[in-house]
Amino acid sequence: MPLMDENLTAIMDEVIARNPGETEFHQAAREVLESLGPVVAKHPEYAGAEVVRRLCEPERQIIFRVPWTDDAGRVQLNRGFRVEFNSALGPYKGGLRFHPSVYLGIIKFLGFEQIFKNSLTGLPIGGAKGGSDFDPKGKSDAEVMRFCQSFMTELYRYLGEYTDVPAGDIGVGQREIGYLFGHYKRITNRYESGTLTGKGLSWGGSQVRTEATGYGTVYFVSEMLAATGDSFDGKQVVVSGSGNVAIYAIEKVHQLGGRVVACSDSNGYVFDDAGIDLELLKEIKTERRGRVEDYATLRGGAVRHVKDASIWEVPCEIALPCATQNELNGADARTLASHGCKVVAEGANMPSTPEAAVVFHEAGVRFAPGKAANAGGVATSALEMQQNASRDSWTFEHTDERLGAIMRSIHDRCLETASEYGRPGDYVAGANIAGFTKVADAMLAFGLI
Ligand code: NDP
Ligand code: 2IT
After folding, report:
1. % residues pLDDT > 90 (the chain)
2. DSSP-derived 3-state class of residue 132
3. How many structural domains does the chain have?
4. Which pTM does this prediction carry?
5. CB-based contacts of 63: which residues, under 8 Å, 6+ apart?
6. Ligand 1 centre from 243 Cα, in Å?
7. Residue 33 Cα to ligand 1 middle (Å)
Protein backbone atom coordinates (compact mmCIF):
# COMPACT_ATOMS: atom_id res chain seq x y z
CA MET A 1 0.00 0.00 0.00
CA PRO A 2 1.31 3.47 -0.81
CA LEU A 3 2.67 5.51 2.05
CA MET A 4 1.13 8.89 2.71
CA ASP A 5 3.17 12.05 2.21
CA GLU A 6 3.94 14.32 5.17
CA ASN A 7 1.01 16.62 4.58
CA LEU A 8 -1.55 13.82 4.33
CA THR A 9 -0.05 12.10 7.39
CA ALA A 10 -0.52 15.32 9.36
CA ILE A 11 -4.15 15.51 8.20
CA MET A 12 -4.70 11.89 9.21
CA ASP A 13 -3.22 12.59 12.66
CA GLU A 14 -5.55 15.55 12.99
CA VAL A 15 -8.58 13.42 12.03
CA ILE A 16 -7.69 10.96 14.81
CA ALA A 17 -7.11 13.72 17.37
CA ARG A 18 -10.31 15.62 16.51
CA ASN A 19 -12.52 12.52 16.42
CA PRO A 20 -11.31 10.39 19.34
CA GLY A 21 -12.54 6.81 19.53
CA GLU A 22 -14.28 6.94 16.13
CA THR A 23 -12.34 4.01 14.72
CA GLU A 24 -14.57 3.34 11.71
CA PHE A 25 -14.25 6.97 10.61
CA HIS A 26 -10.47 6.81 11.02
CA GLN A 27 -10.42 3.65 8.90
CA ALA A 28 -12.51 5.19 6.11
CA ALA A 29 -10.46 8.40 6.10
CA ARG A 30 -7.13 6.55 6.06
CA GLU A 31 -8.22 4.42 3.12
CA VAL A 32 -9.02 7.52 1.05
CA LEU A 33 -5.97 9.54 2.14
CA GLU A 34 -3.69 6.61 1.25
CA SER A 35 -4.83 7.01 -2.37
CA LEU A 36 -4.42 10.78 -2.64
CA GLY A 37 -0.60 11.16 -2.64
CA PRO A 38 -0.24 11.28 -6.45
CA VAL A 39 -3.24 13.65 -6.78
CA VAL A 40 -2.02 16.28 -4.36
CA ALA A 41 1.45 16.01 -5.91
CA LYS A 42 -0.06 16.78 -9.33
CA HIS A 43 -2.38 19.54 -8.03
CA PRO A 44 -0.58 21.80 -5.55
CA GLU A 45 -3.66 24.08 -5.58
CA TYR A 46 -5.55 21.47 -3.52
CA ALA A 47 -2.97 21.69 -0.72
CA GLY A 48 -2.91 25.51 -0.89
CA ALA A 49 -6.65 25.64 -0.26
CA GLU A 50 -6.50 22.84 2.36
CA VAL A 51 -9.11 20.91 0.37
CA VAL A 52 -8.35 17.51 1.94
CA ARG A 53 -8.30 18.91 5.46
CA ARG A 54 -11.63 20.66 4.97
CA LEU A 55 -13.14 17.54 3.36
CA CYS A 56 -12.38 15.53 6.51
CA GLU A 57 -14.42 17.91 8.68
CA PRO A 58 -18.22 17.56 8.27
CA GLU A 59 -20.00 20.76 7.25
CA ARG A 60 -22.64 20.14 9.95
CA GLN A 61 -23.31 17.43 12.58
CA ILE A 62 -26.71 17.09 14.23
CA ILE A 63 -27.28 14.91 17.32
CA PHE A 64 -30.69 14.78 18.97
CA ARG A 65 -32.87 13.05 21.55
CA VAL A 66 -35.56 10.68 20.27
CA PRO A 67 -38.15 9.82 22.95
CA TRP A 68 -41.02 7.44 22.14
CA THR A 69 -43.41 5.09 23.92
CA ASP A 70 -43.48 1.32 23.46
CA ASP A 71 -46.65 -0.77 23.22
CA ALA A 72 -46.71 -1.17 27.02
CA GLY A 73 -46.78 2.61 27.39
CA ARG A 74 -43.21 2.80 28.75
CA VAL A 75 -40.99 5.71 27.75
CA GLN A 76 -38.04 4.70 25.55
CA LEU A 77 -35.11 6.84 24.57
CA ASN A 78 -32.75 6.76 21.60
CA ARG A 79 -30.21 9.05 20.03
CA GLY A 80 -30.59 10.41 16.48
CA PHE A 81 -27.82 11.58 14.14
CA ARG A 82 -27.43 13.35 10.83
CA VAL A 83 -23.93 14.19 9.62
CA GLU A 84 -24.12 16.58 6.66
CA PHE A 85 -20.63 16.00 5.38
CA ASN A 86 -20.21 17.79 2.10
CA SER A 87 -22.53 19.73 -0.24
CA ALA A 88 -20.06 20.77 -2.96
CA LEU A 89 -21.85 18.77 -5.67
CA GLY A 90 -25.48 19.01 -4.57
CA PRO A 91 -27.88 18.68 -1.63
CA TYR A 92 -26.70 16.38 1.16
CA LYS A 93 -27.68 12.83 0.20
CA GLY A 94 -27.34 9.50 1.99
CA GLY A 95 -29.24 6.91 3.96
CA LEU A 96 -30.45 6.49 7.53
CA ARG A 97 -29.31 3.47 9.55
CA PHE A 98 -31.30 2.10 12.50
CA HIS A 99 -29.13 -0.42 14.37
CA PRO A 100 -28.09 -0.71 18.04
CA SER A 101 -24.40 -0.36 17.07
CA VAL A 102 -24.93 3.16 15.65
CA TYR A 103 -22.86 5.96 17.19
CA LEU A 104 -21.25 9.09 15.77
CA GLY A 105 -18.17 7.23 14.42
CA ILE A 106 -20.32 4.89 12.27
CA ILE A 107 -22.43 7.72 10.86
CA LYS A 108 -19.29 9.76 10.12
CA PHE A 109 -17.56 6.90 8.28
CA LEU A 110 -20.68 6.32 6.21
CA GLY A 111 -21.12 10.04 5.49
CA PHE A 112 -17.48 10.37 4.48
CA GLU A 113 -17.68 7.41 2.07
CA GLN A 114 -20.90 8.83 0.68
CA ILE A 115 -19.13 12.00 -0.56
CA PHE A 116 -16.90 10.06 -2.94
CA LYS A 117 -19.56 7.50 -3.89
CA ASN A 118 -22.06 10.20 -4.80
CA SER A 119 -19.41 12.05 -6.79
CA LEU A 120 -18.66 8.85 -8.76
CA THR A 121 -22.30 8.53 -9.85
CA GLY A 122 -21.85 11.71 -11.91
CA LEU A 123 -25.14 13.02 -10.50
CA PRO A 124 -25.60 16.27 -8.53
CA ILE A 125 -25.61 14.98 -4.94
CA GLY A 126 -23.51 15.83 -1.88
CA GLY A 127 -22.67 13.38 0.93
CA ALA A 128 -24.41 12.70 4.25
CA LYS A 129 -25.57 9.92 6.54
CA GLY A 130 -27.83 9.62 9.54
CA GLY A 131 -29.55 7.18 11.79
CA SER A 132 -30.13 6.03 15.31
CA ASP A 133 -29.17 3.37 17.84
CA PHE A 134 -32.83 2.26 17.70
CA ASP A 135 -33.16 -1.52 17.12
CA PRO A 136 -36.15 -2.33 14.87
CA LYS A 137 -35.79 -6.08 15.57
CA GLY A 138 -38.72 -7.41 17.56
CA LYS A 139 -40.59 -4.09 17.51
CA SER A 140 -44.22 -3.88 16.38
CA ASP A 141 -45.21 -1.76 13.39
CA ALA A 142 -46.84 0.70 15.80
CA GLU A 143 -43.59 1.05 17.79
CA VAL A 144 -41.56 1.57 14.62
CA MET A 145 -44.08 4.21 13.52
CA ARG A 146 -43.92 6.11 16.82
CA PHE A 147 -40.15 6.02 16.75
CA CYS A 148 -40.03 7.29 13.14
CA GLN A 149 -42.48 10.09 13.94
CA SER A 150 -40.41 11.22 16.92
CA PHE A 151 -37.19 11.01 14.88
CA MET A 152 -38.70 13.13 12.08
CA THR A 153 -40.18 15.65 14.53
CA GLU A 154 -36.61 16.81 15.14
CA LEU A 155 -34.90 16.01 11.84
CA TYR A 156 -37.44 17.69 9.51
CA ARG A 157 -36.02 21.17 10.12
CA TYR A 158 -32.72 20.20 8.44
CA LEU A 159 -34.24 18.48 5.37
CA GLY A 160 -35.61 19.56 2.02
CA GLU A 161 -35.28 18.63 -1.64
CA TYR A 162 -32.57 21.31 -2.11
CA THR A 163 -31.02 20.83 1.34
CA ASP A 164 -30.75 17.26 2.57
CA VAL A 165 -32.42 14.11 1.22
CA PRO A 166 -32.25 10.93 3.35
CA ALA A 167 -33.05 7.37 2.25
CA GLY A 168 -32.73 3.84 3.69
CA ASP A 169 -29.79 1.80 4.93
CA ILE A 170 -29.54 -1.04 7.50
CA GLY A 171 -32.85 -1.31 9.38
CA VAL A 172 -34.55 1.33 7.22
CA GLY A 173 -36.64 0.13 4.28
CA GLN A 174 -39.88 1.19 2.64
CA ARG A 175 -41.93 0.79 5.85
CA GLU A 176 -39.73 3.27 7.74
CA ILE A 177 -39.47 5.66 4.77
CA GLY A 178 -43.28 5.65 4.64
CA TYR A 179 -43.64 6.65 8.30
CA LEU A 180 -40.88 9.25 7.96
CA PHE A 181 -42.31 10.77 4.77
CA GLY A 182 -45.88 10.76 6.12
CA HIS A 183 -44.78 12.65 9.21
CA TYR A 184 -42.65 15.13 7.24
CA LYS A 185 -45.64 15.81 4.98
CA ARG A 186 -47.91 16.33 7.98
CA ILE A 187 -45.73 18.69 9.99
CA THR A 188 -44.57 20.79 7.03
CA ASN A 189 -47.92 20.71 5.18
CA ARG A 190 -45.97 20.14 1.95
CA TYR A 191 -46.05 17.15 -0.40
CA GLU A 192 -42.35 17.56 -1.09
CA SER A 193 -41.60 14.22 -2.77
CA GLY A 194 -37.92 14.96 -3.35
CA THR A 195 -37.16 15.16 0.39
CA LEU A 196 -36.78 11.41 0.90
CA THR A 197 -35.96 8.60 -1.52
CA GLY A 198 -36.82 4.93 -1.41
CA LYS A 199 -40.51 5.81 -1.40
CA GLY A 200 -43.29 3.43 -2.48
CA LEU A 201 -44.22 3.38 -6.16
CA SER A 202 -47.68 4.89 -5.59
CA TRP A 203 -46.35 7.83 -3.54
CA GLY A 204 -43.41 9.21 -5.50
CA GLY A 205 -40.99 6.28 -5.48
CA SER A 206 -38.91 5.16 -8.45
CA GLN A 207 -38.95 1.85 -10.25
CA VAL A 208 -35.73 -0.12 -9.57
CA ARG A 209 -34.79 1.77 -6.36
CA THR A 210 -35.57 -1.31 -4.24
CA GLU A 211 -33.39 -3.50 -6.45
CA ALA A 212 -30.78 -0.87 -7.32
CA THR A 213 -27.95 -1.49 -4.84
CA GLY A 214 -27.87 -5.25 -5.34
CA TYR A 215 -28.43 -5.07 -9.10
CA GLY A 216 -25.87 -2.28 -9.44
CA THR A 217 -23.22 -4.26 -7.56
CA VAL A 218 -23.73 -7.19 -9.90
CA TYR A 219 -23.66 -4.92 -12.98
CA PHE A 220 -20.34 -3.59 -11.70
CA VAL A 221 -18.95 -7.13 -11.33
CA SER A 222 -20.20 -7.96 -14.85
CA GLU A 223 -18.03 -5.12 -16.12
CA MET A 224 -15.04 -6.39 -14.10
CA LEU A 225 -15.54 -9.84 -15.59
CA ALA A 226 -16.07 -8.49 -19.11
CA ALA A 227 -12.78 -6.58 -18.81
CA THR A 228 -11.03 -9.98 -18.84
CA GLY A 229 -13.41 -11.56 -21.34
CA ASP A 230 -15.35 -13.42 -18.63
CA SER A 231 -18.97 -13.48 -17.36
CA PHE A 232 -21.17 -14.75 -14.49
CA ASP A 233 -22.22 -17.78 -16.50
CA GLY A 234 -21.76 -20.94 -14.41
CA LYS A 235 -19.91 -19.15 -11.58
CA GLN A 236 -20.32 -20.14 -7.91
CA VAL A 237 -21.00 -17.02 -5.84
CA VAL A 238 -21.29 -16.27 -2.12
CA VAL A 239 -23.32 -13.25 -0.91
CA SER A 240 -23.23 -12.28 2.76
CA GLY A 241 -26.24 -10.71 4.47
CA SER A 242 -29.88 -11.36 3.60
CA GLY A 243 -31.30 -7.84 3.58
CA ASN A 244 -32.17 -5.45 0.78
CA VAL A 245 -28.75 -5.41 -0.89
CA ALA A 246 -28.09 -9.15 -0.57
CA ILE A 247 -31.50 -10.24 -1.88
CA TYR A 248 -31.31 -8.23 -5.10
CA ALA A 249 -27.65 -9.10 -5.64
CA ILE A 250 -28.65 -12.77 -5.49
CA GLU A 251 -31.56 -12.16 -7.89
CA LYS A 252 -29.34 -10.50 -10.50
CA VAL A 253 -26.54 -13.11 -10.22
CA HIS A 254 -29.12 -15.80 -10.93
CA GLN A 255 -30.54 -13.85 -13.88
CA LEU A 256 -27.02 -13.62 -15.34
CA GLY A 257 -26.39 -17.36 -15.04
CA GLY A 258 -24.39 -17.55 -11.81
CA ARG A 259 -25.34 -19.62 -8.74
CA VAL A 260 -25.38 -18.14 -5.23
CA VAL A 261 -24.85 -20.99 -2.78
CA ALA A 262 -24.74 -19.16 0.55
CA CYS A 263 -26.11 -16.10 2.36
CA SER A 264 -26.19 -15.05 6.01
CA ASP A 265 -27.38 -12.87 8.88
CA SER A 266 -25.75 -11.94 12.16
CA ASN A 267 -26.47 -15.44 13.59
CA GLY A 268 -24.76 -17.52 10.87
CA TYR A 269 -25.04 -18.62 7.26
CA VAL A 270 -27.01 -21.06 5.12
CA PHE A 271 -25.42 -23.22 2.44
CA ASP A 272 -27.65 -24.43 -0.38
CA ASP A 273 -25.72 -26.27 -3.08
CA ALA A 274 -28.66 -26.09 -5.48
CA GLY A 275 -28.58 -22.29 -5.33
CA ILE A 276 -30.50 -20.05 -2.92
CA ASP A 277 -34.28 -20.26 -3.50
CA LEU A 278 -34.92 -16.56 -3.75
CA GLU A 279 -38.72 -16.67 -3.54
CA LEU A 280 -38.44 -18.50 -0.21
CA LEU A 281 -35.73 -16.15 1.08
CA LYS A 282 -37.77 -13.07 0.09
CA GLU A 283 -40.85 -14.43 1.82
CA ILE A 284 -38.90 -15.15 5.02
CA LYS A 285 -37.06 -11.82 5.11
CA THR A 286 -39.54 -9.33 3.71
CA GLU A 287 -42.91 -10.80 4.74
CA ARG A 288 -42.16 -12.64 7.99
CA ARG A 289 -39.11 -10.55 8.99
CA GLY A 290 -37.51 -13.91 9.90
CA ARG A 291 -33.96 -15.34 10.00
CA VAL A 292 -31.86 -17.32 7.51
CA GLU A 293 -32.09 -20.24 9.95
CA ASP A 294 -35.80 -20.42 9.00
CA TYR A 295 -34.68 -20.84 5.39
CA ALA A 296 -32.81 -24.05 6.27
CA THR A 297 -35.78 -25.37 8.26
CA LEU A 298 -38.35 -24.61 5.56
CA ARG A 299 -36.24 -25.73 2.61
CA GLY A 300 -35.05 -28.94 4.32
CA GLY A 301 -33.02 -31.51 2.36
CA ALA A 302 -29.28 -30.94 2.21
CA VAL A 303 -29.47 -27.25 3.15
CA ARG A 304 -27.25 -26.48 6.13
CA HIS A 305 -27.47 -23.64 8.61
CA VAL A 306 -24.07 -23.00 10.20
CA LYS A 307 -24.32 -20.96 13.40
CA ASP A 308 -21.84 -18.24 14.36
CA ALA A 309 -19.39 -19.14 11.59
CA SER A 310 -17.82 -17.05 8.83
CA ILE A 311 -19.62 -17.36 5.50
CA TRP A 312 -16.26 -16.78 3.80
CA GLU A 313 -15.28 -20.41 4.52
CA VAL A 314 -17.67 -21.40 1.69
CA PRO A 315 -15.63 -21.84 -1.53
CA CYS A 316 -16.60 -19.50 -4.37
CA GLU A 317 -15.22 -17.77 -7.46
CA ILE A 318 -16.93 -14.46 -6.68
CA ALA A 319 -17.62 -13.04 -3.20
CA LEU A 320 -20.07 -10.20 -2.57
CA PRO A 321 -20.04 -8.94 1.03
CA CYS A 322 -23.48 -7.29 1.43
CA ALA A 323 -24.04 -7.16 5.24
CA THR A 324 -22.02 -4.65 7.25
CA GLN A 325 -18.67 -2.99 7.95
CA ASN A 326 -15.61 -5.11 8.78
CA GLU A 327 -17.43 -8.41 8.23
CA LEU A 328 -14.54 -9.80 6.14
CA ASN A 329 -11.11 -9.81 7.81
CA GLY A 330 -7.58 -10.77 6.77
CA ALA A 331 -8.03 -14.44 7.67
CA ASP A 332 -11.30 -14.57 5.68
CA ALA A 333 -9.52 -12.97 2.71
CA ARG A 334 -6.76 -15.60 2.84
CA THR A 335 -9.39 -18.37 2.97
CA LEU A 336 -11.21 -16.92 -0.04
CA ALA A 337 -7.98 -16.58 -2.03
CA SER A 338 -6.89 -20.14 -1.14
CA HIS A 339 -10.23 -21.46 -2.44
CA GLY A 340 -9.66 -19.75 -5.80
CA CYS A 341 -11.87 -16.68 -5.38
CA LYS A 342 -10.99 -14.25 -8.19
CA VAL A 343 -13.30 -11.26 -7.69
CA VAL A 344 -14.62 -9.49 -4.57
CA ALA A 345 -17.05 -6.57 -4.82
CA GLU A 346 -18.47 -4.75 -1.82
CA GLY A 347 -22.27 -4.41 -1.82
CA ALA A 348 -22.02 -3.23 1.80
CA ASN A 349 -20.11 -0.16 3.01
CA MET A 350 -16.53 -0.97 4.08
CA PRO A 351 -17.17 -4.70 4.73
CA SER A 352 -13.50 -5.61 4.16
CA THR A 353 -10.94 -4.71 6.80
CA PRO A 354 -7.77 -2.90 5.65
CA GLU A 355 -5.84 -6.16 6.14
CA ALA A 356 -8.32 -8.01 3.89
CA ALA A 357 -7.77 -5.40 1.17
CA VAL A 358 -3.99 -5.94 1.38
CA VAL A 359 -4.45 -9.72 1.15
CA PHE A 360 -6.62 -9.36 -1.96
CA HIS A 361 -4.07 -7.04 -3.54
CA GLU A 362 -1.17 -9.41 -2.89
CA ALA A 363 -3.09 -12.53 -3.93
CA GLY A 364 -4.21 -10.94 -7.23
CA VAL A 365 -7.90 -11.06 -6.26
CA ARG A 366 -9.63 -8.22 -8.11
CA PHE A 367 -11.32 -6.03 -5.49
CA ALA A 368 -14.01 -3.37 -5.98
CA PRO A 369 -14.62 -1.06 -3.00
CA GLY A 370 -18.15 -0.23 -1.85
CA LYS A 371 -18.02 3.40 -2.88
CA ALA A 372 -17.82 2.24 -6.50
CA ALA A 373 -19.57 -1.15 -6.48
CA ASN A 374 -22.62 -0.23 -4.36
CA ALA A 375 -23.17 3.26 -5.82
CA GLY A 376 -26.20 2.03 -7.80
CA GLY A 377 -28.48 2.53 -4.78
CA VAL A 378 -27.78 6.19 -4.29
CA ALA A 379 -27.57 6.75 -8.06
CA THR A 380 -31.13 5.46 -8.43
CA SER A 381 -32.13 7.66 -5.48
CA ALA A 382 -30.85 10.61 -7.54
CA LEU A 383 -32.95 9.34 -10.46
CA GLU A 384 -35.93 9.25 -8.06
CA MET A 385 -35.21 12.93 -7.18
CA GLN A 386 -35.05 13.73 -10.89
CA GLN A 387 -38.47 12.11 -11.48
CA ASN A 388 -39.93 13.92 -8.44
CA ALA A 389 -38.59 17.28 -9.68
CA SER A 390 -40.18 16.80 -13.11
CA ARG A 391 -43.35 15.17 -11.68
CA ASP A 392 -42.71 12.25 -13.98
CA SER A 393 -42.25 8.51 -13.52
CA TRP A 394 -40.17 6.30 -15.72
CA THR A 395 -40.63 2.64 -16.66
CA PHE A 396 -38.69 -0.16 -15.00
CA GLU A 397 -36.79 -0.84 -18.25
CA HIS A 398 -35.74 2.78 -18.76
CA THR A 399 -34.62 3.19 -15.13
CA ASP A 400 -32.74 -0.12 -15.16
CA GLU A 401 -30.96 0.93 -18.36
CA ARG A 402 -29.91 4.19 -16.72
CA LEU A 403 -28.61 2.22 -13.71
CA GLY A 404 -26.64 -0.13 -15.98
CA ALA A 405 -25.09 2.80 -17.86
CA ILE A 406 -24.13 4.54 -14.60
CA MET A 407 -22.44 1.42 -13.22
CA ARG A 408 -20.55 0.92 -16.51
CA SER A 409 -19.40 4.51 -16.42
CA ILE A 410 -18.22 4.24 -12.78
CA HIS A 411 -16.35 1.04 -13.60
CA ASP A 412 -14.60 2.56 -16.61
CA ARG A 413 -13.74 5.78 -14.77
CA CYS A 414 -12.17 3.79 -11.90
CA LEU A 415 -9.93 1.90 -14.32
CA GLU A 416 -9.01 4.96 -16.41
CA THR A 417 -8.19 7.03 -13.32
CA ALA A 418 -6.17 4.22 -11.75
CA SER A 419 -4.07 3.98 -14.92
CA GLU A 420 -3.69 7.76 -15.20
CA TYR A 421 -2.24 7.87 -11.67
CA GLY A 422 0.11 4.89 -12.11
CA ARG A 423 -1.95 2.22 -10.38
CA PRO A 424 -3.41 0.15 -13.28
CA GLY A 425 -6.17 -2.28 -12.26
CA ASP A 426 -6.45 -0.79 -8.75
CA TYR A 427 -10.18 -0.09 -8.29
CA VAL A 428 -9.60 1.34 -4.78
CA ALA A 429 -7.19 4.04 -5.97
CA GLY A 430 -9.32 4.70 -9.07
CA ALA A 431 -12.54 5.17 -7.07
CA ASN A 432 -10.94 7.35 -4.41
CA ILE A 433 -9.12 9.61 -6.87
CA ALA A 434 -11.97 9.97 -9.39
CA GLY A 435 -14.48 10.60 -6.58
CA PHE A 436 -12.18 13.11 -4.89
CA THR A 437 -11.12 15.28 -7.83
CA LYS A 438 -14.66 16.25 -8.81
CA VAL A 439 -15.49 17.34 -5.25
CA ALA A 440 -12.13 19.07 -4.83
CA ASP A 441 -12.57 21.11 -8.03
CA ALA A 442 -16.01 22.29 -6.90
CA MET A 443 -14.62 23.21 -3.46
CA LEU A 444 -11.84 25.23 -5.10
CA ALA A 445 -14.37 27.07 -7.27
CA PHE A 446 -16.43 28.08 -4.22
CA GLY A 447 -13.54 29.74 -2.36
CA LEU A 448 -13.08 29.34 1.37
CA ILE A 449 -16.42 28.09 2.73
P1 NDP B 1 -30.76 -4.51 5.68
O2 NDP B 1 -31.13 -4.00 6.99
O3 NDP B 1 -31.81 -4.75 4.65
O4 NDP B 1 -29.95 -5.87 5.84
C5 NDP B 1 -28.76 -5.93 6.55
C6 NDP B 1 -28.23 -7.34 6.51
O7 NDP B 1 -26.91 -7.35 7.05
C8 NDP B 1 -29.03 -8.32 7.36
O9 NDP B 1 -28.95 -9.59 6.80
C10 NDP B 1 -28.31 -8.25 8.69
O11 NDP B 1 -28.48 -9.39 9.52
C12 NDP B 1 -26.88 -8.12 8.24
N13 NDP B 1 -26.12 -7.44 9.30
C14 NDP B 1 -26.33 -6.18 9.74
N15 NDP B 1 -25.50 -5.88 10.75
C16 NDP B 1 -24.77 -6.99 10.94
C17 NDP B 1 -23.76 -7.31 11.83
N18 NDP B 1 -23.32 -6.44 12.77
N19 NDP B 1 -23.19 -8.55 11.73
C20 NDP B 1 -23.64 -9.43 10.78
N21 NDP B 1 -24.62 -9.17 9.91
C22 NDP B 1 -25.18 -7.98 10.00
O23 NDP B 1 -29.66 -3.49 5.12
P24 NDP B 1 -29.13 -3.28 3.62
O25 NDP B 1 -29.18 -4.55 2.86
O26 NDP B 1 -29.83 -2.09 3.08
O27 NDP B 1 -27.61 -2.85 3.87
C28 NDP B 1 -26.53 -3.79 3.85
C29 NDP B 1 -25.23 -3.05 3.60
O30 NDP B 1 -25.29 -2.36 2.35
C31 NDP B 1 -24.87 -1.97 4.63
O32 NDP B 1 -23.47 -1.91 4.75
C33 NDP B 1 -25.35 -0.68 3.96
O34 NDP B 1 -24.67 0.45 4.45
C35 NDP B 1 -24.98 -0.98 2.52
N36 NDP B 1 -25.68 -0.22 1.49
C37 NDP B 1 -27.05 -0.17 1.43
C38 NDP B 1 -27.67 0.53 0.42
C39 NDP B 1 -29.15 0.53 0.26
O40 NDP B 1 -29.61 1.12 -0.72
N41 NDP B 1 -29.92 -0.09 1.12
C42 NDP B 1 -26.90 1.30 -0.57
C43 NDP B 1 -25.46 1.12 -0.47
C44 NDP B 1 -24.90 0.40 0.54
P45 NDP B 1 -29.37 -9.30 10.86
O46 NDP B 1 -30.79 -9.32 10.39
O47 NDP B 1 -28.98 -10.48 11.66
O48 NDP B 1 -29.00 -8.00 11.54
O1 2IT C 1 -24.96 3.70 1.46
C2 2IT C 1 -25.74 4.14 0.60
O3 2IT C 1 -25.34 4.56 -0.49
C4 2IT C 1 -27.19 4.12 0.91
N5 2IT C 1 -27.57 3.63 1.97
C6 2IT C 1 -28.17 4.71 -0.07
C7 2IT C 1 -28.24 6.19 0.09
C8 2IT C 1 -29.32 6.88 -0.71
O9 2IT C 1 -29.45 8.09 -0.50
O10 2IT C 1 -30.00 6.24 -1.52
Report:
1. 96
2. strand
3. 3
4. 0.98
5. 79, 80, 81, 104
6. 6
7. 26
